[in-house]
Write a structure and sequence with these properties.
Elements: H1 15-25, H2 30-47, H3 64-69, H4 90-96, H5 109-123, H6 133-162, E1 170-171, H7 172-182, H8 187-195, H9 204-219, E2 228-229, H10 231-238, H11 244-258, E3 266-267, H12 268-272, H13 282-303, E4 310-311, H14 313-320, H15 325-339, H16 349-354, H17 356-360, H18 371-374
Antiparallel strand pairs: 1-2, 3-4
Helix pairs in contact: 1-2, 4-6, 6-10, 6-15, 7-8, 11-14
């Protein structure tokens, strides 16, 4: 009997393997072959069974309802992620706005090149065939506003999902029921247990998520606190980056996670420390080098505005505010400097095409070919 080996090039349900076994054993033992064939047929039937008839049920992906009512892990146009990591896609998000999805890595380069030329002509507000820092700043603010308007549109749908009676406000208990229902709990049973103040018997992970959401929920409840969220407050709950009060809360959470000595400020060493649990191997060393290099540069050149070696909550709040015009101007200058090969502090079309991967995440081939003719 042949044992299963994960390195074997075929599985035993492959048709070629079945036929090879059949031919080899035919003359030796017809009965054995028949039994083997029956077993293999049974295996094929089990493997080919439709997903909804599977003997073991895999954990389903996040449902549409869950995606609608949970705060997103990633916030477009914000420099730091909620876990304190640098937003690797920030440059593309503030340069492309809602068009970022059109620049996929596997999309047709010529189409992306044409689209990038179109964007350049829009950023070049005075039509002098070069982009200044002020023009780039204006463009960044427009694209950030696009992200905000998209968040507001999504929030309307999300609010309806948790406000089925349409009374214009949602209690924490109403939200809690919808959240747990999106996690697979029976909505009626959960609602009844909450109404009767019964133990919900949640697992530890779900309970921790609920506690975090509850804290965030009450932070989004504007004064006078009534423990109810209207649509605008629910937007702050889902997207804290566009609410001054919730932005402060988000900064406080990030500082709490990174602050090692509890002084509510961040030193360079605290900001560049790798997350706990990093695997100690050569790959981890490479990751650490890149992590330290990128975060050190961001800390010293951008976040620490007064260059005193300490980042306060106020400095981090200003850094993370997506509608901060001063930040937008600094970002514009930084983006131009990356591609400014002729050092004139402006951005020309051939430069932006050459450095397309930085601006769009998509590398264009033959960037300089017929640039001026197409432009």
């Amino acid at each position: 009997m042949i044992s299963h080996n994960s390195s074997f090039p075929f599985t035993f349900t492959h048709p070629k393997v079945i036929m090879a076994i059949w031919r080899k054993l035919w003359c030796r033992n017809l009965l054995a072959v028949s039994l083997l064939f029956c077993v293999l047929l049974h295996t094929i039937n089990v493997n080919a069974r439709p997903a909804n008839m599977s003997a073991s049920k895999d954990k389903p992906p996040a449902s549409k309802d869950e995606n609608e009512i949970l705060p997103p892990d990633h916030l477009n146009g914000v420099k730091l992620e909620l876990d304190g990591h640098l937003n690797k896609d920030f440059h593309q998000e503030v340069f492309l706005g809602k068009e970022i999805e059109e620049f996929e890595e596997d999309s047709e380069p010529r189409r992306n090149r044409k689209k990038l030329i179109e964007i350049f002509t829009k950023v070049d507000f005075n039509r002098d065939r070069s982009v200044s820092a002020k023009e780039m700043q204006r463009w960044i603010m427009e694209k950030t506003e696009e992200h905000f308007q998209e968040a507001k549109r999504e929030n309307r749908n999300s609010f309806r999902a948790v406000d089925p009676d349409g009374d214009g406000h949602v209690t924490w208990d109403e939200y809690r029921v919808k959240f747990l229902a999106s996690k697979g709990f029976n909505e009626k049973e959960i609602a009844e247990k909450i109404k009767n103040n019964e133990d919900l018997k949640l697992d530890e992970e779900t309970q921790e998520v609920l506690e975090s959401l509850k804290d965030r929920w009450f932070q989004a409840d504007n004064p006078p606190a009534d423990q109810l969220l209207n649509e605008e407050e629910f937007l702050s709950f889902l997207h804290p980056e566009h609410s001054r009060g919730m932005l402060k809360y988000m900064v406080k959470e990030i500082v709490r996670d990174l602050d090692q000595d509890g002084d509510k400020r961040l030193t360079l060493s605290e900001f560049i420390s790798l997350p706990v649990g990093t695997v100690e191997n050569q790959q981890a060393v490479d990751i650490e080098d890149e992590w330290v290099r990128e975060r050190k540069k961001e800390f010293e050149d951008v976040i620490d505005s007064n260059r005193d070696g300490i980042v306060t909550m106020e400095e981090l709040e200003e850094y993370m505010d997506p509608m901060n015009e001063h930040n937008a101007l600094n970002e514009a200058k930084q983006m131009i400097a990356v591609a400014d090969e002729n050092q004139n502090h402006n951005l020309e079309l051939d430069e932006i095409l050459k450095y397309s991967e930085y601006f769009t995440g998509s590398k264009l081939m033959d960037y300089a070919r017929n640039v001026h003719e197409e432009f």
